[in-house]
Write a structure and sequence with these properties.
3 domains; four-stranded mixed sheet; extended
């Protein structure tokens, strides 16, 4: 069989023979096989998670697409620029999932058992795992430290370019354009060099009466750093009508600065704002150095600097934890690696966010506070690896017994009481209490509870109880079947002899 041949080749490469012990060679077949088992589910998880986050970001992104009339090429560029910071969550999650699924498959198919039978220990399986997830962690660090700031700057430039193109497309000769907000622009003629001839401008910014400007020529200049455009007018007059006064000013050159305000918000995030998340590592350190050492602003910039370093290391440790979680699978046993992995992933990111906020507030030293979640995660990884190496369950048996006893003594009875109370309340709400005669009772179906041996009439408060699953056409058939009426349904002479429901 192919698997037996793979075992023989693996055993040969591991140097099981005494003659090969003196000269050890890395078992490339084993390493490549384990790496392929992890990388296949990693890329599948990456595509699935990328698609999910794509749909989440697509809906708010449509507002910008429709407002700026973005084409397909610019849409792809915009999405590629704003999406890298999502990969900080997608890549670690996909990496951890890939390791868990890979080792779960190896365990359920008994290939791990076959490796151990050939003398391949878990320690010898670690190099391909460590190398693979180290490469993925380096990719995460590259996204965190380089691509996200670069993407933020590219988004800023792209949004400005698209806003300016919207103005240029909306500016046509012999037509009034309102693409500049409160400024209405009219151009009599536009030449091939985009020079204007015969310009009329109406400025209503912060005014009740428009400020009219008439010029012989003009053009539009763009300042990408300041996110604004400048309308330059030549040889014209400016008419200011404020109340009863009318002021006319002649000019040879007049500049009208217009800050662009395109719809750049995606959800609650402004994609063009130069916040700390859009700065490079060098800019973060330089900005923090300009502020007082113990100020909140300095801690905020330094926390962002360390946050980008903490994430790749956390990705590496999370992926390592996936190995012992995947080894918990077994034939006939439910695979709990994925749920436990998602739980650990969520707890880690919540802890990281809390530690970042506490460190920025000065309640913890900055560097130890930022790296504390990784330290705790490393301790958890070492503990899980030790339990797996000793072939023991991840949770000690005494803790498992304690939880089971707690569930049997406290949680389960409380749950059963709450279910019974809910059923009784629902039955009382559904039950109708009009006085019923024996003829009415005999004409309606009778419901009985096989656990208590009692039957209930339609006007009984226990008639709609979930345990009453047996139905009889009348009271006589219910009695012949061995059921007796409950205390509420019995005749007055029988009530003293009937047990309570």
């Amino acid at each position: 069989m192919r698997f037996d041949q793979r075992q023989d080749e693996t055993a040969a490469q591991m140097g099981m023979n005494s003659g090969s012990r003196s000269r050890w060679r890395p078992p490339l077949l084993l390493y490549s096989y384990i790496a392929s088992e992890m990388l296949a589910p990693f890329f599948a998880s990456l595509l699935i998670l990328y698609g999910v986050f794509f749909l989440i970001r697509l809906i708010p992104l449509l507002d910008i697409v429709l407002s700026l009339r973005i084409g397909l090429a610019d849409f792809i560029r915009l999405f590629a620029y704003i999406f890298p910071h999502m990969l900080l969550y997608i890549i670690p999650m996909a990496s951890m999932t890939g390791v868990i699924i890979g080792f779960t498959r190896l365990t359920t198919d008994r290939e791990i058992l076959a490796f151990k039978a050939c003398g391949v220990s878990l320690t010898q399986m670690m190099p391909p795992v460590a190398l693979t997830i180290a490469a993925i962690a380096c990719l995460t660090g590259h996204f965190s430290a380089n691509l996200i700031p670069t993407g933020a700057l590219a988004v800023r430039q792209l949004m400005f370019q698209l806003a300016k193109e919207k103005i240029d497309k909306g500016l046509k000769a012999k037509e009034f354009t309102e693409a500049l907000g409160d400024i209405v622009l009219y151009v009599d003629e536009i030449d091939d060099q985009q020079r204007w001839h015969g310009v009329y401008v109406s400025d209503m910014r912060g005014r009740t009466q428009p400020l009219i400007t008439v010029a012989q020529s003009g053009h539009l200049e763009a300042d990408m750093e300041q996110m604004r455009v400048t309308v330059v007018l030549n040889d014209g007059t400016l008419h200011n009508n404020d109340g009863a006064d009318n002021q006319v000013i002649r000019f040879a050159r007049y500049q009208l600065q217009i800050p662009l305000q395109p719809p750049t918000r995606i959800g609650n995030e402004d994609v063009t704002s130069q916040h700390r998340g859009a700065m490079s590592q060098e800019q973060l350190l330089a900005t923090a150095a300009k502020l007082p050492p113990d100020s909140k602003g300095s801690r905020m910039y330094l926390s962002e600097y360390h946050y980008r370093l903490v994430l790749p290391v956390g990705c590496f440790i999370l992926s390592l934890i996936g190995m012992p979680l995947g080894l918990q699978a077994a034939p006939g046993r439910r695979a709990v690696g994925i749920p436990l992995g998602l739980l650990i992933f969520m707890v880690y990111y919540i802890t990281l966010t809390v530690c970042q906020n506490i460190s920025e507030a000065g309640m913890l030293p900055l560097v130890p506070g930022m790296w504390l979640p990784n330290f705790l995660l490393l301790l958890l990884a070492l503990y899980l690896f030790r339990r797996v190496y000793l072939e023991r369950p991840l949770v000690p048996e005494r803790i498992t017994h304690f939880v089971q006893n707690l569930h049997a003594r406290l949680l389960l009875p409380a749950w059963q009481r709450s279910v019974r109370l809910t059923n009784d309340t629902f039955a009382k709400w559904k039950a109708q209490r009009p006085s019923a005669t024996d003829n009415d009772a005999n004409a309606l179906p009778i419901r009985a509870d096989r656990t208590t041996g009692l039957f209930h009439l339609p006007n009984c408060i226990h008639y709609h109880h979930l345990e009453c699953q047996l139905e009889f056409s009348n009271i006589q058939i219910a009695r012949e079947a061995g059921f007796t009426p409950c205390a509420d349904c019995a005749q007055p002479s029988e009530r003293n002899e009937q047990p309570q429901c």
